[in-house]
Write a structure and sequence with these properties.
By secondary structure, this protein is an alpha/beta fold. The protein has ten helices and eight strands. The chain has a single domain, classed as Spore Coat Polysaccharide Biosynthesis Protein SpsA, Chain A. It is globular and about 50 Å long.
Length: 253
């Protein structure tokens, strides 16, 4: 039960045919030091027993039959009813204090609108884990942060205030299928909204996207279309200037 000073937390997990991994993730959420107020599973057209697994753990199942992570994640955010919307993927394995740390951050930091965390990869060789951490994720932060003017969101381990999602929900490209939904949302974050990169917010995530070239190539192929969606409406130098001005204004208050 939440107190007058705490914030309610919904955990959204989009899933398509990952029932066994989802079961492990939900078991981890079942053993949190601070239990989530609700868990929303978005069944994105699964043909396995994803819905039955979710219901067995008491999660609320939202159906999004049209395949695509952008549609599925947005449907979950829309359905969430808490103050804070946290996001995992089916292959995420949060540590026991994951929900507690997210709730405490938003409770103690009223200036923060988004929190994005770090992965610890499992399920492959040490070399693949190192490449995923330092080349893929490290490269994402190194290349995208200067473009965005803030840290990009990492969809397997992130959270945001429900109020900011409601402000941005009509703007995200939920109908696109060949983009990264977390990058897309990152581009829509407005000047004056604050993203906290919490390096202590760590979630174990499967390394399966990096185990073969075809999987890695598919993930990389989504990056350029995501960026292209945002080049024409808002030149990047104008975006960075607007964010610097908003930061200076906030610092002066």
């Amino acid at each position: 039960m939440t107190t007058a000073f705490s914030r309610s937390v919904s955990v959204v997990i989009p899933v398509r045919n990952d029932a066994r991994l989802l079961e492990v993730c939900l078991r981890a959420l079942e053993h949190q030091t601070r239990i989530a107020d609700e868990i929303v599973i978005v069944d994105n057209g699964s043909s396995d027993d994803t819905a039955a697994v979710a219901e067995g753990f008491g999660a609320r199942v939202v159906t999004e039959p049209v395949p695509g992570i952008p549609r599925a994640s947005a449907a979950g955010y829309d359905a969430a009813t808490s103050d804070i919307i946290a996001r995992l993927d089916a292959d995420s394995r949060p540590g026991p204090d994951w929900v507690e740390r997210i709730e405490r951050t938003f409770r103690d930091r009223p200036d923060v609108d988004f929190v994005t965390g770090e992965p610890r990869f499992y399920g492959s060789t040490p070399l693949v884990h190192w490449m995923g951490t330092h080349l893929y994720i490290g490269g994402m932060y190194a290349s995208m942060a200067p473009v965005l003017g803030h840290a990009p969101l990492y969809g397997s381990n992130m959270a945001m205030r429900a109020t900011v999602w409601r402000m941005l929900s009509a703007e995200v490209h939920r109908e696109q299928t060949n983009i990264h939904d977390d990058f897309d949302l990152s581009f829509h974050i407005r000047p004056g909204m604050t993203v906290l990169r919490d390096r202590g917010l760590v979630v174990a995530v499967s390394a399966r996207p990096f185990q073969d070239w075809a999987s890695l190539r598919r993930r990389l192929s989504y990056v350029l279309p995501t960026v292209r969606l945002h080049l024409s409406p808002e030149p990047l130098h104008q975006r960075r200037r607007a964010r610097r001005e908003a930061d200076r204004s906030a610092a002066g208050r």
